[in-house]
Amino acid sequence: MSGFEELVSRLSYEEAWQALLKEMKGEIEGVFDRVEKVMCVQPHPDDTDVAVGGTVAKLAARGVEIVYVTLTDGRLGTYDPKVRPEELAEERRKEQEEAARILGVKELVWLGVKDGELQPTVELRWKLVGLIRKFRPDLIVAPDPWLTYEAHPDHRYTGILAGEAALFAPLPHAASREDSQPHTVRYVAYYWTRKPNTFVDVSDYVEVKLKAVGAHKSQFGEAPAIKDLLKAYMRLMGKRIAANYAEAFKVLSFSHLHCSVFAEDI
Questions:
Q1: Is residue 183 a contact partner of residue 72, using CB atoms and an 8 Å limit?
Q2: 2 lies in a domain?
Q3: Is residue 15 part of a domain?
Q4: pLDDT tens across 40-99, in order?
Q5: Which of 45, 46, 64 is nearest to 111 (CA)?
Q6: Are 213 and 230 in contact (CB under 8 A)?
Q7: In whole angstroms, how far apart are CA 93 and each of 6, 81, 98, 211, 224?
Q8: CA 250, 55, 24: angle at the middle one, nearest 5?
Q9: Is residue 4 part of a domain?
């Protein structure tokens, strides 16, 4: 009888379930302290900075290699009918470059899909697989595609594509090329999630995050409301780990990305 089967056989259903979850949660403990390369896959310029810019700054300060992969050009991100979409896309690109500089991110990749038109296509999946094999990250960061009531398709599909690409990247016959060697992403961390299992203390990086968010002037201007909201949310997440400020993630190991009935509860 295997170790897991023996464990299950001698416990009640609920006890066995919790014991297995505890074992699996051990796989993701301290992930952000261990990773050396991180790929942030975001739907628009600014999403990663707004959601988890404090964690990005903290990782960069530790010397972690970070690459931003932005799927769309952000051309729809305005309520002003006088702003031309092409001009806004270029402006947002420059804003993201400045925000990345502030946080310590040195590598940015732009896939250029028109804002609002992102689809979870095989072509985009294979592009992400290629980028994973090029940059070889330990961890992928992306929005949680299963956030309840999320109406923006770009956000949902970005999370889906990031998970799919992580799943296929180690398979040698998936998007195979002579100059592209398979790579296993050890972890995927989803932000904007209702099922967080990992909290990163960003108390020392709040101000640099807010400075980076402020670089996205086309989105937030000089209005303090977004910064107040972000600080309140980070303060709320900080209560989970007795920190002043924290950012929250649903972290899954590679083995939990396929046919895992435990993934939701980890």
A1: no
A2: no
A3: no
A4: 999 999 999 999 999 999 999 999 999 999 999 999 999 999 999 999 999 999 999 999
A5: 45
A6: yes
A7: 55, 20, 9, 17, 22
A8: 30
A9: no
